[in-house]
Specification:
It contains three helices and six strands; from the N terminus they run ααββαββββ. By secondary structure, it is α+β, with helices and mostly antiparallel strands. It has a single domain, classed as Hotdog Thioesterase (Thiol Ester Dehydrase, Chain A, Roll), CATH 3.10.129.10. The protein has a six-stranded antiparallel beta sheet with strand order 1-2-4-5-6-3. The N terminus is likely disordered.
Length: 149
């Protein structure tokens, strides 16, 4: 079993539980005007060693063939993987990643990425992310190596 780097249920000096802190992180991440915001990526669930996010495929996110651009599929995997490995108080960057695009997704679809660590380490972790559409069809599978800063 991987070490648990998460905090206790109530953080020292704070009056909120871990779940309340995760809820605040989701609210913040979905309102800060960054790359994710401008591309419609929403963090939807966050808990210890797990994260999910989603994106609705709008015309701006579609490639010339009429399907989801690979960059947006990769991005939702990256976001979910990063949050799954970060837990509450670990800052990280993606060191390496591989992705397999398994099925195209069309305009109007909503994609969901779910990520969980395969191995949590002190300086590096490996995280698996899977992207599905609203019919629960597997769109992509990715593996990320993250480096803790």
């Amino acid at each position: 079993m991987a070490p648990d780097y998460s905090y206790e249920d109530t953080l020292p000096g704070q009056q909120m539980t871990r779940e309340e802190r995760y809820a605040r992180m989701i609210e913040y991440m979905n309102t800060v005007q960054d790359f994710n915001f401008h591309n419609g990526i929403k963090l939807t669930e966050l808990k210890d060693n797990y994260a999910s996010c989603s994106v609705e495929l709008t015309p701006e996110l579609i490639n010339a063939n009429g399907f989801a651009h690979g960059g947006i599929v990769f991005s939702i995997c990256d976001v979910a993987a990063g949050f799954a490995a970060a837990s509450i108080d670990r800052r990280l960057v993606t060191q390496a990643a591989t992705i397999s695009y398994l099925r195209p997704a069309a305009l109007g679809s909503t994609l969901t990425a779910k990520a969980e660590p395969i191995k949590l380490g002190k300086t590096l972790s490996v995280v698996e992310a899977k992207v599905t559409d609203e019919q629960d069809r597997l769109i992509a599978h990715a593996t990320f190596t993250v480096f803790y800063t």
